[in-house]
């Protein structure tokens, strides 16, 4: 597995950074693990589980020395975590409006009928 194959369709498999994605800043890529864990608390489970998986894969790639792959997987984890958080907040707000909004309307109708 440690051999470098010339003409590989996926350059990240060769564990050599590509010139197109190497920014040269020397900083390690972020795996967004905290965001992925927080996203798991939102009710968008298929998406946030995949985001958590990408985050762990990004951390593993960085530990193996594959900085390009870690950066790519970290970006995927970030996008999926953001989608999960926004989707979860939307679902929670809609649920609150439907549940409490219905009780409020019943209360207002009851007051109007009584008076």
TrEMBL record:
What InterPro entries does its record include? Answer: CD225/Dispanin, CD225/Dispanin_fam
Q: Which keywords does this Swiss-Prot/TrEMBL entry list? A: Membrane, Transmembrane, Transmembrane helix
Give me the stretches of Polar residues compositional bias.
1-19
Transmembrane regions:
32-58, 79-100
Signal peptide residues are none
**Location relative to the cell:** Membrane
Keyword rRNA-binding, does the record have it? no
Extract the Pfam families matched here: CD225
Region (Disordered) spans which residues?
Answer: 1-25
Q: What GO cellular component entries does it have?
A: membrane
Q: Which family does it belong to?
A: Belongs to the CD225/Dispanin family.
Question: Per its record, how is this protein called by name?
Answer: Proline-rich transmembrane protein 2
Species source reads Cyprinus carpio (Common carp)
